């Protein structure tokens, strides 16, 4: 590959959009540090850079708030990273989330990804708790390359 064949493109926004689409399908939005969430009688602040379920009070459960690190890890899973726990129902391997997805929901979830893997990590001192590592991405569908102006 020649230098002229290589195209330098800033893909940070594309990667963020992929993560946001994926998490929104699961019912999550970025948490804000100024928002309180209730856990029984306890009140605590959601850590900046984390994710919380839509609906605030209505979203009670084990996965109500998750870290950015968990969100990134969950996004980067591929179809082979889910195990069938009972016929037709799947759970992610290696992610600290208690979640079960039907085969249909799993396929729709994976279809919400724009890129196969986001190339950033959780970092407390970075903007929105995310530190970018690489602009190199692999699109889940070749149509996205054209849509975002990235030629193969």
Could you explain the architecture of this structure?
This protein has one domain (10-146). It has helices spanning 12-25, 68-75, 103-111, 142-147, and strands spanning 28-30, 36-39, 42-45, 51-53, 65-66, 82-86, 89-92, 101-102, 120-122, 130-132. The protein contains four helices and ten strands. It is 24% helix and 22% strand. The protein is globular. Residues 34-48 have low confidence and may be disordered. Strands 1-4-5 form a three-stranded antiparallel β-sheet. A three-stranded antiparallel β-sheet has the order 6-7-8. It is an alpha+beta fold. The longest helix is centred in the first third of the chain and has 14 residues, at 12-25.
